[in-house]
Amino acid sequence: MATLQTVQKIGPVLDLFTAAQPEWGVSEVAAAIDVPRSSAHALLSSLVDTGLLQCRTRGRYRIGWRVIELGETLRGTVDVRSCAAPVIENLVERYGETSHLAVMERWHVLYVDKVVGTHNITVQGARVGARLEAHCTAVGKVLLASLEENELHRYLAGRQLRRHTPSTITNAGALLDALSVARSAGHAYDLGEAVSEVHCVAAPVRDDMGSVVAAVSMSIPVSRFVPRRVEFTRAVMAAARDVSHAVANTNHATPTTTRDVPESGRPALAS
Fold it and tell me: What domains sit in the chain, N to C, each tagged with a CATH number?
C-alpha cells in the first residue's frame, strides 16, 4: 500500500512544475501536497533518479531532461497532433478563428496544439500545454461524451463542477444531459461557459478503431459566433472528420513544431 500511495503522489508533484513556477524546494513541495518534508524529499529523489526531475543548487528542483526523451517517444507513437496540424491551419486560414486540438488527460482537458485567429479582434485561447476543467469547455464535453458510463460516473463522483461564468453547467444531471446531446449530435458547444464573451464549438477525432482520441475546436467572440453558428459547426465537424481519416490512414507522421504565442489582453481560454 505504501508503494501505491507513493505512485499516487507522483502526479501531483509533477503537476506543481509549471511555466509560471518551474522551480520548487522540498519544503514548498511538502506544503503544496500536504506531506511530511521527509516524504517530499523521498518523492523528489525518486523522480531525480528516473530523470523526470533534476536537482539544482540549494536543493531546488526542476523538470529533468528525461521528459524530452519521453516527449519524442510520444511523438513517434501518437500521430494525432501531426495529422491535425495542417487541418487546423486550414481551418484558421479559411475562417480566421482560433482553433485548438485537445485530448483528455487525468480527467482534464490538455491542449496539445493551437493556431491563433487572424482577425483584428480574436480569441487568444488556451496555451499549448494548458490543462483546464472539462465540464465548461466544448472540447471537454466532446471528450467526456466519449467515456463509458462507468468512467463518466467516476469522473462525476465527488467532483464539484466549478462555476466560471453565469452560463457554466454546475449540476451533474444537467451536464449528463448536455453530454447526451453532444454524443448524438457529434459536436458540443461552450456558450460562454468558460469565458462569458467567448463561444466555442468542438467535434471528436477518432482513430481507426472508432475510439475518440482527441477533439478539434474553434473559439470565437460571441458577436461573430451567433450569426454563423451553423456554418462554424459544420466546419469544425468536417475538420474533425478530416483529422480522423488522416489518423486512421497514417501509421507514422512527421512531428510538427509546437506553435504558440504570448498571451495578451484579448479574450483568453475556452475551446
Answer: 2-14+21-68 (1.10.10.10), 78-249 (3.30.450.40)
